[in-house]
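> tool_call: predict_assembly(chains=two)
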Amino acid sequence: MKSFETVEQAKQNPAYYEALTELLYQLADDDFIISFRGSEWLGLAPHIEEDVAFSSITQNTMGHAFLYYQLLEDLGEGKVDALAHERAPEQRRNASYFEKKNGEGSYYGEPWYDWALTVVRQFLYETMKKVKLEAAVKSSYEPLANTAQKVLMEQPYHLAHWKMWMQQLLSSTEEAQEKIQARLEEAWEEGKDIYDLGPKAQDIVHHQLISGESELKQRWLQEVQATIKDLPADSLGDKFGSGRSGEHTADLDQALQTLAEVYDSDRYAVW
Amino acid sequence: MYNYGGTLAADNVDEDKEKYARFMERVEAGEKIEADDWMPDEYRQTLIKLISMHGISEIMGALPEKEWVPKAPTVKRKLGIMAKVQDEMGHGQLLLRVAEDLMKPYGKNRESLMEDLLNGDLKFHNVFHMPTRTWADAGMVGWLVDGAAIISQTNMLDASYGPYQRALKRICQEEVFHAQHGEAIIMALAEGTKEQRRILQESLNNWWPSLLMFFGPESASTTGSSKQEVTTKYRIRKSSNEELRQAFLDKYLPRVFSLGLTVPDETVHYDEEKQRWIYQQPDWNEFKQIISNNGPRSKERLRLREIAYENNRWVRQALAPQVVVS
């Protein structure tokens, strides 16, 4: 399989181009929505040191989303800000589990967010992200491989952070263990699209853009199991459908409305 | 006065007098006082009040801007404001650690500070009681509120207390970036559409009284209390409140006018003879109300911290050292 070094090369092969952009949307949208949910926690984390650390991770993650949107812009998909702000929910390719609200209440009202949900989700997400990045550094699309290499310089620290939270909470009070366990079971009912590559999975793998679903899933589960001994026995479900196919919940609508509120007030203005 | 309990080492007054004289010699010679050095109680309490208020204001200050973090209109602006608010939390952490060291002899810690904030004993800065209504407000906080903060903190860059002075050095360096970040947002709005200019002017109108209040009243007689005499005596600060406000007006009013903006005070002008800006005093009674947690957004912002505190109790308990049962 030959590698594609430039945008022009990728564009000459329509099937390749389609699979590539599909994967890039998944990567970009995952980081974008996870960063948004993280930013909602700002000022509300369990302690100030965590607020500093979490907001740093969230900021890096938004930076990663930017890099992927930039690759899409280079491929002619539209401007970064249009891609981030204008696409309708059904065009979004993030895992639906990642868009789930942080908990009860709202950001402007009474945010009764759940730290257990956040620890579980961030841990599962960062573990998957590292597996995907390690596969993407061997991608046939060189600009993606280069970006993955760059992101891998800081992402393992993010994973280490959430791994530490997971280990600490799992070895602490009964209450903490129960809360984590409940959120893990919920993740298992909803989170199949964490490793799902969507309807174009075969093409994505055929063009050697990233490893296959079963390999990604296996490596991810292996990593997760190294930290959490008692994983739910069932296989992962897709209670709210697959975000990779554009199936989303009302939680995504809330996120997108907030993210685009000022942008939408005048899409042509310079901000 | 924010009282942290009884006087320490009050039993040997003569010895204290000697120590006090030696302490003042050091301060006046420009030496830095360190956390473990002997210091008079008044000095310690003044520092605790000043630094804990500064630290908690950084943390409460993250909340009004936080509202605009995800709403920032471009991905780059989102990144910029995320970095900025993260810095503010970092300043809060840095400062609370300095305050915690000072509080140790009184048996107080971080938890006490949070409780004092929630029960109203620990105040936070007037500007952070105000609403951020539009994206222009997010820019205004960076540009003029942080601009004012730079002026008031630069005034303490040579503070006699070493740990605070060193923290301020780092904070001021970062605040310069914040002011630039704010200025960039403001410039884009000023050069933008009619509506962008409208929200910019509206924002400045709304923030103007808060910005004047930022530096505190000219003298204690205005509001009944002011710590500026004590902080000056101990060489924690140099200039007076009014000198700082004049420095702020000196620096920013020409910039405001050059952007074609106005301030909501027709009397504002520079008096060449007196070499100072003339302006209408803000309502200092309102200032007192605001910092007593009766400002437009005081209750909501405190409620956010209260929820975070209550809601994460189980996490704190989970992280607490386990009691070993044998």
